[in-house]
Amino acid sequence: MEKGKVAGTSPMRIELEAGKKYFWCSCGESTNQPWCDGSHKGSDFSPVMVEVEESRAYSMCTCKQSDRPHFCDGSHKKI
Ligand code: FES
């Protein structure tokens, strides 16, 4: 999978609600990081749906280089 533009250099810790659908920006162009704002339109990128089973804080990737998007996997440390 092609990786998006670096939108940040550290993860965002965000409370996610179990069962709720979120759409993670994969292109890196959204101004509402880490979420999709529709900026990918016209590109080959699509938002990634995020749905968790447990309500708690998660580390969401903003650098778009994670090998397990949409979560941070530490790849931002290599930017
Ligand atoms: S913010 Fe992208 S891997 Fe950590």
Give a structural overview.
With 79 residues, the chain is mostly beta strands. The protein has one domain (1-79). It is built from no helices and four strands. It has strands at residues 12-16, 22-24, 48-50, 56-60. A two-stranded antiparallel sheet has the order 1-4. The protein has a two-stranded antiparallel sheet with strand order 2-3. The model has no long low-confidence stretch (mean pLDDT 97). The structure holds FE2/S2 (inorganic) cluster (FES).
Radius of gyration, in Å, reads 12 Å
Question: What does the largest sheet look like?
Answer: 2 strands, antiparallel
What would the average pLDDT be, to the nearest integer? 97
Distance N to C terminus: 18 Å
Order of helices and strands: EEEE
What's the number of domains? 1
Question: What's the oligomerization state?
Answer: single chain
Please give the order of strands in the largest beta sheet.
1-4
Molecules bound to protein: FE2/S2 (inorganic) cluster
* Tally of individual helices: 0
Question: What portion of the residues fall into strands of 2 or more residues?
Answer: 15-25%
Count of individual beta strands:
4
Poorly predicted sequence stretches spanning 5 or more consecutive residues:
none
Shape: globular
Measured as a percent range, the helix fraction is under 10%
Q: Structural class given helices, strands, pairing?
A: mainly beta
